[in-house]
Amino acid sequence: MLGRDLCAVLAQAGEGRVTAADRAALDVTDASAVRAAVAGHDVVVNCAAYTNVDGAESEASRADAVNGHAVALLADACASSGARLLQLSTDYVLPGTSPDPQPEDAPTAPPNAYGRGKLLGERLLAQRLPEAGYVVRTAWLYGEHGGNFVATMLRLAAERPTVDVVDDQHGQPTWTLPLARQLVALGRSAMAGEAPPGVYHGTSSGRTTWHGLARAVFTHAGLDPERVRPTTTAAFPRPAVRPAYSVLAHGRWAAAGVAAQPDWEESLSLALRRPAFQALAARARG
After folding, report:
1. What are the structural domains of the chain?
2. DSSP-derived pairing of the beta strands 170-171 and 208-209
3. 114 is a catalytic site residue
4. Cβ neighbours, 10 Å, residue 245
5. Which one from 50, 114, 142, 245 is the annotated catalytic residue?
6. Residue 15 pLDDT
7. What is the model's pTM?
8. Contact present, 72 and 124 (Cβ < 8 Å)
9. pLDDT tens for residues 149-193?
């Protein structure tokens, strides 16, 4: 989702010197391949990740190889070539127990193996590339490309009279397109020497629950939101613990001269006008 939107934003911005490497083109766990891929570039954005949160509980070493140790390879390659590295991370590096939006310097305490692997990547980046490493934590991503919660809700709306969605997990639904724009702005600020290295929180403004998001999806798609019924996390046991409160603060963007993202529902309304979501919504409306 994010990689494709990032390429689109770069193209729209007139940036023609872009190398987009998918898994077939680059194994981020291969040191020599990483060095060759990074050479000659000014900014590297690492969207690669092991994203199966539940799978990481039983495949921690595999997840850590991509989410943690590969970041060290990228950081070393960037240090050698003089490139800046923007590393995508997650709200799951935080405990998710605070009742307030978490700032970028909040104490970390991942509740699951996926979060521990991503935190390993953050720490290795800080160690290997302290002056040119940027961590951008994001959460609750959705977009036109690939599987995501918003698309799932629209598909279920076409298949079921009602859907049950948890209402005790709080977060910030984040459309990949505004995040991609934010990453491009951060990369340019970094190249200009204006963005301090370190951690940034790349999520939408505002907050809601998964249930609130699902109702908003139904509403903006022209469907009856009363078809979305609230339930609890306990009703859907999963191998990996999910944090109850994943709301992030966005205070560091001002220092980089980059705007925070819009409110989550404003972004959702715009996203649902995109062709892929329009097609799903039309099918759900029958």
Report:
1. 2-285 (3.40.50.720)
2. antiparallel
3. yes
4. 19
5. 114
6. 84
7. 0.97
8. yes
9. 999 999 999 999 999 999 999 999 999 999 999 999 999 999 999
